[in-house]
Design a protein that fits this description.
Distance between the termini: 43 Å
Order of helices and strands: HHHH
Number of strands: 0
Helix content: over 70%
Strand content: under 5%
Largest sheet: none
Radius of gyration: 35 Å
Length: about 210
């Protein structure tokens, strides 16, 4: 009984540990996917604002672009904090470098515009809003796929752990039953043999009466 109770306690404790770890990892994965999707949404806004600025040259678009860039960097920092794997950290580093190039590209375009070189400024703005943003968007999609793949791998590990726990519970139950039968038989022999010997001695002393 002590053996079965100890085994049951260990299995229950292990199950609770898996549940706690699973909840934490699933929550982190959800946050990672949410952050990656927020990055994508911010990129759409940055691209739209850039193209609107090319069309009408309203300085208000530049202010809105600065706000969107700050928001993008804030979400990027959050994604870096919640990243779990080396692949995710590498993708975030690449996104950070690409976005830095985009900001430098935009800054150069605004300088050229103030100098009166609108043709070159427009070319840089189009390059930034199309090529660089598209590349960053592709990296964000890779980040989402990496998180989804990681979650699928962890779900597979949980499934294997569930199978292990199920086998352990069955083994504990069947093993406990067999062990109980064996121990019961041994206890019966230990108790009955002295009683039987005592009965023989009493009968011998009483002349079998």
């Amino acid at each position: 009984m002590a053996l079965m109770m100890s085994g049951g306690f260990l299995i229950i404790s292990y199950t609770y540990q898996i549940q706690d770890a699973s909840s934490e990892i699933f929550e982190e994965n959800i946050q990672n996917v949410r952050a990656a999707k927020e990055l994508e949404i911010n990129l759409y806004g940055i691209r739209a604002i850039s193209l609107n600025y090319i069309i009408d040259r309203d300085s208000a678009w530049v202010e809105r672009l600065d706000e969107k860039e700050d928001e993008f960097l804030r979400v990027l920092d959050k994604a870096n904090e919640t990243a779990n794997t080396q692949e995710e950290h590498l993708l975030i580093q690449q996104i950070t470098a690409l976005f830095s190039n985009y900001q430098q590209n935009l800054s150069t375009a605004l300088i050229l515009e103030r100098q009166g070189n609108l043709l070159r400024a427009n070319a840089l703005l189009v390059h930034g809003s199309r090529d660089l943003i598209n590349t960053i968007e592709d990296k964000c999609k890779e980040l989402i796929e990496s998180n989804i793949s990681e979650q699928a791998d962890y779900e597979e590990r949980i499934r294997r752990n569930d199978n292990f726990i199920r086998v352990a519970m069955y083994s504990l139950g069947i093993g406990g039953l067999i062990l109980g039968i064996i121990l019961g038989w041994l206890v019966a022999r230990i108790i009955l043999n002295p009683i039987y010997k005592l009965v023989l001695k009493v009968r011998d002393a009483a002349g079998s009466e």
